[in-house]
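Sequence only, no structure available. Ideas?
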Amino acid sequence: MSNLPLSNTNLSQVFTSAYLSAKYIKLKYPEIKKVYVIGAEGIVKELESEGITAVGSDEDKDKIMTIDTFDKLELDPEIGAVVVLHCEQRLYF
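Reply:
I predicted one. Tokens follow.
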């Protein structure tokens, strides 16, 4: 972190969007026990650490959504939210 312009910040003060998303759902929507994930594996791990089941991420990563396929989706009544997190590039300093 010494190369970042955050000289007065330590690692315990840095939070990822995956971590914050999982915490937010757990705190604000405790009734949600299952979410559909569009994004990277990190969010799945964070959700599971909060006791929230995550589906979608890996099993659907190669699927292409069209209007026709969207119209034919069978909705899972247990899914309480859709979480979208994605990062095309990682920045290292």
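Residues 11-85 form one domain.
Hope that gets you unstuck.
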